[in-house]
Amino acid sequence: MKLLIVESPAKAKTISKYLDGKYTVKASVGHVRDLPKSNIKAIDIEGGFIPRYEISKGKEKVVAEIETLAKKADEILLATDPDREGEAIAWHLSELIKDKLGESGIKNQESKRVIRRVTYHEITKEAIEEALKNPRAIDQNLRRAQEARRVLDRLVGYDLSGIIWKKVRYGLSAGRVQSPALRILVEREREIRSFKPETFWVLSANVESKTGGQFTLICVEEPRDKKLVEKILEVGNRDAWIVSDLSESEAKRSPKAPFITSTLQQAASSRLGFAPSRTMGIAQKLYEAGHITYMRTDSTILSASAMSQIAPVVEKKFGKGLFEARTYTKKSKNAQEAHEAIRPTHFDVYGAGATDEAEALYRLIWERTVASQMVDAKTLRSKITVKVGSGEIPDFAITGTRVLSPGWLMADQGARGEDVELPKVSLNEKLNLLDLISTEKQTEPPPRYSEAGLVKELEKRGIGRPSTYASIIKTIEDRGYVTKESKALKPTDTGEVVSGFLEENFANYISDSFTAEMEDKLDDIANGDREYEKTLSEFYKPFQKEVKSKEKMEKATNLGEGPKEFPCPICKGPMIIKLGKAGRFLSCEKFPDCMGARAIDGKELEGPKETGEMCPECKTGKLIERDGKFGRFISCNKYPKCKFIKKDAELERKNSTGVSCPVCKDGMMTERRGRFGLFYSCSNYPKCKNAIKAKPTGQLCPTCGALMMLGTKTIPERCSDKLCPNHNPHKLTQ
User: Fold this and answer.
1) Which of 198, 352, 479, 704 could form a disulfide with 724 if both were Cys (CB 3.0 to 4.6 A apart)?
2) Is 268:461 a contact under the CB 8 Å cutoff?
3) In the beta sheet, which residues pair with residue 600?
4) What does the pLDDT look like over 625-673, one tens digit per residue?
5) Segments of 606-724 assigned E as strands
6) In 73-139, which residue ranges form alpha helices assigned H by DSSP?
7) Sign of torsion over alpha carbons 591, 593, 598, 599
8) What is the C-alpha separation between 232 and 115, in angstroms, rounded?
């Protein structure tokens, strides 16, 4: 028997179709081993930063199945993704199989069993067959680079998070790459706050040519002086408007390069409104279904086979003479691996994908790739300049652009924009003024970063790599460090406090230069030009020393003086800014002697009030009413030793789903709101901690007995236990 192991069931299904039963194809369902949660057990620093891996929770069954199949196999091929992450998964699988079967090398002389690695950049019959002809050993350099990143991120994350817990607030976190990304957002927020707007005026004139064509001219200056505005209005309404200059020039617009990971995320965000993590999830499914090439890449290269496919498609769909072979050079000095650009696997397939979102993303990739190999678009740029009277006020002008020959824009209509065609006028022609308007405006601060904008900025600064952009943004959003307002990322109070603390105490370690240099060093490990242990040792010794030096600093309870206009509501004394779980607030500087508090906007916060009841849980505490993130509630004053919370009977009745909890058999599944939105948990919490992400349907899973919950349009119902195969019922038939 021949065994081929991939990551996902979807990929296993697609590849199986191409192998005609010659291989048993098994999915590892992602990583099978990882570092333990406890940092004490995770890494042997003294022994040379040796990670102590353990089988990931929930993967025991998958690993056992793979080991059973491996015993029967004469040949084992590891066909995971063609990047560092994929190389690492292949190595972990290889190590587990060898440990189980007692093999010390690649080949066991008795069983003749061989474990080899195969890679491909697209899931097509041709690509898979070619990969099987060229098996190789696991690339230890790539694997070590991924291991170095994982160990480095763990060391930085645990040590920085530990000091933040002690000095700022329990439960906060920091990371080697997430913290520089957060700093970029916070720096922009400070720019916005410190920005001082200036008033200016935009003057527009609606005019008519002698042929009757109407158009709008804009003053070439935006005056800041109201008197100048009045003068322009006076002279403009009094004097003649004469065409003083006409210019027309042809220009070429060249197509953009095929997508790499970062540009795909940016385009999908701006055109389709997808978050980077959403884009990568959809792209992963398109790749696994064999519709596109591998989606984590820094390369803009297209293979010869791709070019040969594009030429006839361009001629058939858009006409003769429009194909032009082009080669693009990646500007970034950092290229993780020499992949191909993200492109369709078959260009004669104009639409692909199981959902509307997948179809939209596939179409975006198809259009960009085909357009990249087409002739330039030709445009006509025209400008009309008008002089008013003797020229004592600024000129008015308008610029128009018209597409003469669309070229590549025929394939990528979304890049076209709007044509602005101007009427035919002649030099020295007198125009008829229809209306002259002044509009008062204010200069605006630099905009907040969108997700696409942050990806572009991270790439420009050399922070992170294609495989990490989406996870960086998702992490700082999930941590509650940023929120999304429309499409803009805005730091929360907590995010600003964490970033400020790190900037003040660990500026070197969250700087652009340090983060980019560390990425370069990881690249060097991947290329075999740098040693794993030496790299980590050079970083960790000074870093650990820096962290230890901060142990004796005082806790950052005071974040600065509060506004003078908001004195303490109780003693009328000054207030200071503090950080709570709900964000920043104002506290009396005499706390705990004085309990006065206000919201950051000055609204008075009522302190905890005793209800006169004893706690029914611990029998010694008193019940108090206090403010929480989602309103006021009643709990024991012995918290956190006693975690009793008095339930609001009316609210419990209103939020109850009517579905019994299958764990304790006593409570009801109730709608609640948490940090990440709505969820459903047992009404007997915290005694029973059964909780699920979506509304329960009332049915039990026929596979594991857990509650079934509402799914999506395409998957109406699924198991609430994410370890159960029925959690992804659409994959059971794959």
Assistant:
1) 704
2) no
3) none
4) 876 665 678 888 887 788 888 877 777 788 899 999 999 988 999 998 7
5) 609-614, 622-628, 631-636, 645-646, 656-660, 668-674, 677-682, 691-692, 696-700, 707-710, 717-719
6) 84-101, 125-133
7) positive
8) 81
Q: Residue 571 corresponds to which amino acid? A: C
User: Which residues face 202 on adjacent strands?
Assistant: 439
d(CA 241, CA 258): 47
Interatomic CA distance for residues 550 and 120, integer angstroms: 48
The dihedral formed by the CA atoms of 458, 460, 466 and 471, expressed in degrees to the nearest 10:
0
pLDDT tens-digit readout, 438-459: 999 999 999 999 999 999 999 8
* Alpha-carbon gap, residue 86 to 92, rounded angstroms: 10
- Between 7-21, 144-158, 324-338, 350-364, the lowest mean confidence (pLDDT) is in 324-338
The end-to-end CA distance of the chain, in Å, is 22
* CA 139 – CA 490 distance, rounded (Å): 41
Active site residues: 294
Q: Tokens representing 570?
A: 């109780």
Q: What's the Cα-to-Cα distance from 332 to each of 97, 257, 517, rounded to whole Å?
A: 39, 13, 14
Q: Which of 122-126, 231-235, 332-336 has the highest mean pLDDT?
A: 231-235
Residue 110 has pLDDT above 50, yes or no: no
Predicted TM-score of the model (pTM): 0.73
Tell me the angle at which helices 276-288 and 356-371 cross, rounded to the nearest 10 degrees: 80
Phi (first) and psi of residue 129, to 5 degrees = -65, -40
Domain annotation for the chain: domains and CATH numbers:
2-138 (3.40.50.140), 147-191+449-549 (1.10.460.10), 199-254+378-442 (2.70.20.10), 261-371 (1.10.290.10), 575-648 (no CATH), 650-732 (no CATH)
734 with 723: CB under 8 angstroms? Answer: no
Handedness of CA 50, 56, 59, 61 (dihedral sign): positive
CA–CA dist 103, 95 (Å, integer) = 9
- In Å, what is the CA distance from 47 to each residue of 51, 52, 367, 501? 10, 11, 52, 32
Q: What angle do CA 402, 418, 423 make, to 5 degrees?
A: 45
